[in-house]
Amino acid sequence: MATSVMEDVAGGSTATAAAWLATSKQGESAARASQELASAKRYQLRVLRVLGRDHLNARRRRNFFRLR
């Protein structure tokens, strides 16, 4: 009886370790995905800011030459 209990405990801990490993891998990939998303958002904002600045500069130039 003692050996079957020990086997159950060993089997349970193996299953727990496997479940934890699968969960931690999912967590790592989710963390990596959120970092990549944040990086993409920062890049998008930077591009939009530059495009917006260029757009404003073009409007200012156009208005400047209209006033002369």
How does this structure look, described?
- The chain has one helix and no strands.
- It has one helix spanning 2-67.
- The chain is rod-shaped and about 80 Å long.
- It is an all-alpha fold and 68 residues long.
- The chain has a domain at 35-67.
Average pLDDT metric: 69
Structural class: mainly alpha
Measure the end-to-end span. 100 Å
Ranges where pLDDT stays below 50 over 5 or more residues in a row are none
Count of discrete alpha- or pi-helical segments spanning 4 or more residues: 1
Radius of gyration: 29 Å
The backbone outline, from C-alpha atoms, is rod-shaped
Brief characterization of the structure:
This protein has 68 residues and is mainly α. The chain is built from one helix and no strands.
Summarize the topology:
Layout lengths: L1 H66 L1
Which descriptors would you attach to this protein?
68 residues; mainly alpha
